[in-house]
Write a structure and sequence with these properties.
Blueprint lengths: L2 H11 L4 E4 L4 E4 L9 H11 L2 H4 L4 E5 L2 H6 L3 E4 L2 E5 L5 H25 L3 H19 L16 H11 L1 H7 L13 H14 L2 H7 L1 H12 L12
Helix pairs in contact: 2-5, 5-9, 7-8, 10-11
Length: about 230
């Protein structure tokens, strides 16, 4: 769904959303969240744990009951500086996970050259994909139709991992390879899951499993790209 269509949909959906200003970005809650979820507390926590130059990658967050999310069977998406999130959240932790995951895509978009230009994260991901291929072959899955050397998102491959393998089984198979089952679907989601682990999970575990994502995030966590030494960028 194109950004202009989304914005038109949002404009006509609710004339009086709840609005919050968090400095770098605004949050509009167009349909109510569960009473147990404190939006201000969640975004205040995010501002505490994530550096300003990452938050500056984001313009606005919309939360509501959106048909374009339901049609794609997803809880959230990032597009052109905006995050769109379903208000059907189990709890505050669920909402925070969605926000940080989608924020990672904004950060990746802004600093993509830094993350990927040396090829190390890509190589790290593809090596893990080759290990996954061997594991799935050993488990007897028919994987001949998939290109494990393709780092881009493949809907058929995603559906195979979700429906045929199952995320619970995939998580057990790859516990020392990927930080989460969804990280295996594409390079973009591999980075996003690493970003989540860095800020909401276990940094030590991330360093063990995805050392190049850990290194790059650690460098940028303290400084913006313009402040890094040239050698640090390599």
């Amino acid at each position: 769904m194109k950004r202009k269509k989304i914005l038109s949909y949002l404009k006509n959906k609710n004339k009086h959303p709840s609005e919050y200003d968090f400095g770098f970005f605004q949050v509009f809650v167009q349909n109510p969240l569960p009473d147990s979820i404190d939006v201000k507390a969640i975004f205040s926590h995010i501002k505490q744990i994530i550096p300003d130059h990452f938050l500056d990658s984001l313009d606005v967050v919309y939360i509501g009951d959106y048909s374009f999310l339901k049609e794609r069977e997803i809880n959230a998406l990032y597009s052109d500086g905006a995050i769109y999130i379903s208000n059907a959240q189990e709890d505050g932790e669920d909402l925070e996970d969605d926000i940080v995951h989608e924020l990672s895509h904004a950060v990746e978009e802004k600093y993509g050259e830094f993350f990927y230009s040396d090829g190390k994260i890509v190589d790290e991901f593809l090596l893990k994909r080759s290990k996954l291929k061997r594991l799935l072959t050993h488990q007897g899955y028919d994987i001949a139709r998939f290109d494990f050397s393709n780092p881009e998102y493949d809907e058929e491959f995603d559906e195979f991992l979700y429906s045929e393998v199952g995320y619970d089984s995939l998580r057990l198979l790859t516990i020392d390879i990927f930080t989460g089952a969804y990280a295996a679907t594409s390079l973009r989601e591999y980075f996003a899951r690493g970003f989540e682990e860095y800020y909401l999970g276990d940094k030590v575990y991330l360093k063990q499993v995805s050392p190049y994502i850990y290194k790059k995030l650690s460098l940028l966590n303290e400084k913006d790209l313009e402040e890094l030494d040239y050698d640090d960028r390599l």
